[in-house]
Write the structure tokens for this entry.
Amino acid sequence: MDAYRAQLQSFDQDIADAIRGEERRQSDGVEMIPSENYTYPEVLAALGSVLTNKYSEGYPGRRYYGGQEYTDVIENIARDRACALFRAEHANVQPLSGSPMNQACYFAFLNPGDTVLAMDLSHGGHLTHGAPVSHMGKVFNFVRYKSAPQQGGAIDFDALMTVAKATRPKIVLCGYSSYPRDYDYASFKEVADEVGALTMADISHIGGLVAANVMRNPFDSGFDVVTTTTHKTLRGSRGGLILSKAAYAKKIDSAVFPGLQGGPHMNNIAGAAITFKKAAASEFIEYAQATLRNAKALAAALLAEGVTLVTGGTDNHLLVIDTVASFDVDGQVAEEALDSIGITTNKQVIPDDTRPPLRPSGLRLGTPACTTRGMCEDDMGRIAQWIVKTLRHPKDTAAVEATREEVKATCRRYPVPGIS
């Protein structure tokens, strides 16, 4: 790796310098975006390996190109480890990312115009769950359910059943990107069974927490299909994973290839295989438990300062601040203010937000990445103080600079994996 880095520095200093700059940014700041994490050095080695040279269209034992003896081994290992980790009957490890992963599932089971019952985006749902601006939102008919933020984010399953009976969805989809609670999968399964719908859960954000058995597994409630990205809380390479009952294996595999994609990225699949092995170890369970403890500690510290949190707290790795109610600034202003002190977050719409997505009323933050670095509950208290102080006085340049130095000093105690 060091030899390759030297070659890059010699050939293209502009790109090499930008990479070095990103390394410094990651090292000197606190990464609080809940969908980001630091992967393992072993995964970085796989991503930069000769596997990036190889085309492997098809599936193990059924490839369209020759020379697949080692790629078949890698993909089979990845599939077997994924099934064991999530207690699934079948795994497809080829999706290039989260969006094509979910798209493949839709095309496997739906015809254009068919209905999907999914979470409202402003209540925590994801862009790939039928946002009107997405192609999937134009191809299929997405209807919405919402949470009750003032009741801890509870979902009214009586109302959900009424909507399901009125719209007769082909898929009942659970999944979120900014919902700070766990799901009652058994109740979703009851609704789906009542209307003859398939059950699908997108656990991309909490995949690592589900793998570690610190959050509920949809398969334990009889779900048909579960999707997850392989980075985020899993800490792996960037890719998608579709898990399912064996009965759906052929439909899903055909929808991924040749239906949606060409050759898979074998270096990412090797990275995913390594990730699944890491996630099966006891150290990963400890990491997942610490991620949840840190999220709860961060929420408690913010609440103690009078900060308004969507749903009033968290059951998982993320939380959402209502920045307008808490600090009288929108999420864009809050994001930029925290960037200035080295805390990276992202602006976020809140339930039934009246503000536009680029100037929303909320801010989303989470604990996977800082927990990877070894930060603990005491650190979450400090981070909460930095956030509150900065957002209450975002234009106090002296305070901002002093806080920035505090953030750097703290971060130096916690090295980023893979950065020398």
Q: What stands out?
A: Residues 282-304 form the longest helix (23 residues). Residues 159 and 310 are 21 Å apart (CA to CA).
